[in-house]
Amino acid sequence: MDTNIRPETMERITTPELAAAFIDEQIKMIREQVGNKKVLLALSGGVDSSVVAALLIKAIGKQLVCVHVNHGLMRKGESEQVIEVFKNGLDANLIYIDATDRFLDKLAGVDAPETKRKIIGGEFVRVFEEEARKLDGISFLAQGTIYPDILESDGVKAHHNVGGLPDDIHFEGLVEPVKLLYKDEVRVVGKALGLPANMVDRQPFPGPGLGVRCLGAITRDRLHALREADAILREEFDICGLAGKVWQYFIAVPDMKSVGVKDGKRYEGWPAIIRAVNTTDAMTATIEEIPYAVLHKITDRITHEVDGINRVLLDLTPKPIGTIEWE
Ligand code: XMP
After folding, report:
1. N or C: which end of the chain has fewer CB atoms below 10 A?
2. Protein residue whose Cα sits closest to atom 9 of ligand 1
3. Can you tell me which atom of ligand 1 is nearest the CA of 247?
4. Rounded to 5 degrees, what angle do the CA atoms 238, 242, 245 make?
5. Cα(316) to centroid of ligand 1, in Å?
């Protein structure tokens, strides 16, 4: 039996009761798989890895070592929040690694989306392996792979957590307890595990982070502009109440400039592209309507507050035909 295929008989997890049953079953399976050995978890702070962390803490407690790698492609304030929630809040065994320079140096000049993804995924695994070697006796690598990752690694995009693993991986095995679940099910499980609602309902964030939104070859200045513009979008969505309604919303910044004018002078800048979509399982997506007043305010703030951005555009493309991310 291929353990990467969801059995047709598997019930959709929609209630706390179904989630509780899933959790009990997974706890047993995790304990059986890892015994008294240690597990290393790539804790990005997104919904999937956070739920896996909570599940593993419940199953094996201090045998779990969480590693949060800041690849320099996190959203504004995100790494700080991971430390706050997991280290201070949940008392997790958490190691923080700032690998920004390492990732950005490797990515310099690389513009092909799949190559960028593979570099980020490969580098991630190497960082974890290095960490595993430093730590005594880590045997397993846990990952927040979910079912759409598995389905879509087959042809559309090489999602880093299934497509980009190098062959020289040194772990005894992988622990992927939510790999047969869709996103909405992962959230139900997260709530049943007692994670705070604002963490469980947080919009998904791809493993390669802002790396697939800083389109083409990543530069530090454009990445910085993207991060600042994205923070403004998130702030304004919080203020107007769209944050709780829209599944995923973010800014992408392409590697192209247009002519603008600022303080009476020619001002060339990048456009910030707003993408705001709704979906239940990320396989298809529809466009969320954003009131014009909100769009005006976001445009005004981004063009005035973010260095290097001189236009704001709105992406109205559903999936299909556009994927949610631009790369
Ligand atoms: P796409 O762009 O394929 O995205 O329509 C579907 C969902 O998956 C997220 N995504 C990723 N998640 N690693 C991840 O863990 C990745 O490489 C990756 N690429 C896309 C995307 O943000 C959306 O929620």
Report:
1. N
2. 206
3. 24
4. 125
5. 18
